[in-house]
Amino acid sequence: MRIGALIIVGCLCSEMTGFGADTGSGVAVTNQIAMEVGDTVAAEYKKLLELDDEAQAEVDRWIRENQAFAAKGGGVPGAELNRRIRARFVPVSEAYKAFIQKHPSHTEARVAYASFLGDTGDEDGARAELENALVLDTKNPAIYNNLANIYGHTGPVKKAFDFYAKAIELNPNEPVYYHNFGTTVFLFRRDVEEHFGILEQQVFDKALELYSKAMKLDPTNFPLASDVAQTYYGIKPPRTEEALRSWTNAFRIANDDIEREGVHVHFARIKLGVGRFDEARAHLNAVTNEMYTDVKSRVLRNLNEKEQESKAPSDSSGSGK
Questions:
Q1: By the 8 A CB rule, do 142 and 129 touch?
Q2: Where are the beta strands (DSSP E) in the chain?
Q3: Angle made by CA atoms 164, 166, 167, in degrees to the nearest 5
Q4: In Å, how far from its chain's centre is CA 51?
Q5: DSSP codes of every residue in 264-290
Q6: Which of 15, 78, 150, 234 gets the highest tally of CB atoms within 10 A of its CB?
Q7: Which CATH number, 1.25.40, 1.10.10, 3.30.420, 1.10.3470, labels domain 219-310?
């Protein structure tokens, strides 16, 4: 459509100015129409994103309201709510399809539609849209990152490693790419060992290095800091002091008392594990929010048991005496 408009305008300008005449004005008019067409497409795309955002916001509100009603003994059944949600998203999906059919080379629309499909549970559809987008634009780091996310879920996971690396190569200043890559490395340790030819402890180091780069780029991101700190639970042998430093950093940048109390729970768990019982108890005493009641009770029970075990006299007399 845009190419056709340019050709028609060019022909009209030649006829109007005469053979051999200065066509500078024709180029100017052509450029002006191209800009107008571009503005029209941008406006259409903006409306499409607004339609998506409105639907997502409305569905989020339905879910919150139904959860509140369910807590009081009301609310609609899950199956009915899901039916309403699917119906609400139908016009959004149709709008994306119509826009992409009209503007098949609009990479951003394909990426946005892929995100929509992923949010609504159609991971295969999201993958197809992103792979189509990659054909159109091989220099877009978001496409590589988003495809890597999908490959990490559905495979091939080793392709996810390469795509995260490519996203970082194209945009080394985006912390999300390092965060996602670090999480995938940590979760798929055996695949990482095979793909990169490294040992398990080096895999842990690689994941932590990627997390460290993410934190340097986004140093006040509490969810990121919390994810980094929780990684230490899966590292064997334990790196206790490193874990405590990581949780200390998360505590420092926590946004409110709820987040800080959550960190206290983690402090208690770690210190309980290394026999620092008094410190663990002090951390648990700092936790007062009801949302942590269950987990606090479990950790406190473990603390009491471990403390009693440490105080019990060991049987060194032997059973034959």
A1: no
A2: none
A3: 65
A4: 22
A5: HHHHHHHHHHTT-HHHHHHHHHT---G
A6: 150
A7: 1.25.40
